[in-house]
Amino acid sequence: MPTLIKNAIVITLDAEMAVHDRGWLRIEGDRIKAVGAGDPPLDFAAEVIDADGDIIMPGMVNPHCHMAMSLFRGLGEDVDDRLFRYILPIERKFVTAEMVRTGSRLAALELIQGGVTTVADMYYFETEVGRVVDEAGLRGVVGQTLADFQPPDHASFDEGFERVEELVAEFSGHDRVTPSIAPHAPYSTGVPVMARVAQWAADHPDVPVQMHLAEMESELDWCAKNHALRPVEVVELAGLLRKGLIAAHCLLVDEADIAALARNGVGVAHNARSNGKAGRGIAPIEAMRKAGIPVGIATDGAMSGNTLDLFSQFAPVSIFQKLLGHSRKPMPAAEVIRMATIEGARVLGLDARIGSLEPGKQADLIRIDLSAPRLHPIYDIYSMLVFAAIASDVRDVMVAGRWLMRERKVLSLERKKVLRDALQIASALKAEMTAIDAGR
Amino acid sequence: MPTLIKNAIVITLDAEMAVHDRGWLRIEGDRIKAVGAGDPPLDFAAEVIDADGDIIMPGMVNPHCHMAMSLFRGLGEDVDDRLFRYILPIERKFVTAEMVRTGSRLAALELIQGGVTTVADMYYFETEVGRVVDEAGLRGVVGQTLADFQPPDHASFDEGFERVEELVAEFSGHDRVTPSIAPHAPYSTGVPVMARVAQWAADHPDVPVQMHLAEMESELDWCAKNHALRPVEVVELAGLLRKGLIAAHCLLVDEADIAALARNGVGVAHNARSNGKAGRGIAPIEAMRKAGIPVGIATDGAMSGNTLDLFSQFAPVSIFQKLLGHSRKPMPAAEVIRMATIEGARVLGLDARIGSLEPGKQADLIRIDLSAPRLHPIYDIYSMLVFAAIASDVRDVMVAGRWLMRERKVLSLERKKVLRDALQIASALKAEMTAIDAGR
After folding, report:
1. What is the pTM of this model?
2. Could you tell me where in chain B the CATH 2.30.40.10 domains are found?
3. Strand ranges (E), B305-383
4. pLDDT per residue as tens digits for the range A378-392
């Protein structure tokens, strides 16, 4: 049965950035059939939902996440060099298919409750992530990670490629889950493996490539020492700087790097809170966007940024650019919401299907409840979304025409069971952290 | 009837930073009678509340706010020099006793729902603010502002002092509302008036002084031009750099300024989002705290920072210092929560009465609902509060032993009426902004 949502503030994010202060939306199957202003045409064949003046906007796109790491949320805070001290040892010991399933489910709950409808993920046992994204009803680009530091699911790159092939075999042609290949980073794969990925990707034009890029000083050092190049140049040398590459971070980039990213059609996933919390700095996303690079707003894993919703990123994303520019002008709120929706979709190569509310597009949308006093008055709807709204203001979530959440209740996952399973794994992790800190 | 809250994670914020993973709290009248771990002693005379494993912690302190400006939330975004272009003309035209009452009520709703129990306010018609703080059941330090730019409630400083005297007369001896005098800033009062305030304050030792200090480049220029000094030095010259001064911002301070603030016993209200959103920079609060200056976490008015709860400030407060220090180490989460509670209370001179959960202190406390999946797992309770919790996780709020909110419903104000009144004023403001932008 078609669905008709009426009496909503419809924020379309279409090319004209149309906002219908009192608008409606008609959904048939998994798609948006029509969008309009004022009263909808009479339609006795549809289920009619009165949005009561709330906002209907596109579901948000989180283009860089490690869903399973929600189990590590808040682990090892305030310590430099966590990657080698905590993350890698813990991952080797604790990351199993079951752990990835449980952590991804916890993440899926949070993503849905925070209004994210599409997530790009990079991790291990990624087939499990794809299955969780599928069961949760989300849309995802799920990337099997390849790395040389004895990751938990492959002892060699050959084995890693086997994991990728399994993932592609399972999700090829899936409507919502797009398999992806994810070389971890330049320093953790090396040029020969990145070249192999580039060749493999050329043979699989529908499979997006994700990687961490230009994130850390130590990465700059590795690239300088081994290739006398900068990270972006090393990736270009390997032939991997290509259209469809989803590059996470791009924090330590100079003008030439930005030009190379733009020239090669790379999309960037910006992780403001994660980068800032590491004390690493502020990615020059204003400059990147001016150069024509699509930039999405991402959360990174919960061990880095603690949250997976985009509302918690909005103020940092905008404020960081204002600090860089020493002015109020950079990164106005409407641009932030654009990045969180249609531009994030472009980063993932999905902008023809999602990211805006337009006829023919997938019905991925969220309803924002405007009852909280802290959201009012509203002089600029985008400013309200960026600087005042929080994750809990998301009331309903729909992906591909299916309601995943109604009135804050997630319908596609069992909250209590997921939480119970997660806390069981967390208690074992607590003991391990204590052991690491005791120097054992 | 006494209240006994049991089965709670009690975060005391006492000198030892004690946290009782399963604790209890006994409240008699407006005070905390006892705090303990484990099962409470049997008590048939008390109303027993089972917190069901939720957090009980001190109510938060917001030491710099302009409550009435919640009506200007999100007005004039992304424009430099808003103060003279928008704020002052709008204030002259729209700020009346009625507007201050309505805006302060809207702010009170948001403060309570965000877990703030004590607020320091600076504005005009401040007697109205004091009355709203009182009716809402909040605790407040309400400062009548003095300024030379034709503010809406006094045509001369003599008249301004009359407003102050009225305020002090009405609230002197009030248990929760502390009257305060608030010279706007060095450039908007000048040395002779600041000296007059200093003298007045010496005669009124119980009346705290609040002011904006070292916030803007133009303020530095004014101080340099008129006195060949820096802002902190100008205030010292006027004799106003004194114990009990609540200095908001202190963004543009150097080492000598910090030493002067510390030497004179000044408290600082840090406004991370407001300063950052203006592109002005990051206040060196790590250095200030090392020098012994108490620093609280403040929101500024909603026209500057958009929100009045402290959760929306926590990540910026911590991340900004990590960015300044280029490391994960600065400003650990426990320090952020300390600033939001006991240290903020110290800034306001109220730390003997509030800011921690200890026997004899006022029963100002909040309950944090831990049911949201996005809060779990919890490896470090302070990290969870700083980086994962949001305003809507506050479930119940008590001030001086009285519940102001239960299960998210504010009991002391009529939400619908307040919102209706606020939106009526907002629609007139919208028209005025359009007129200003049209260059009339």
Report:
1. 0.97
2. 3-58+354-408
3. 365-368
4. 999 999 999 999 999
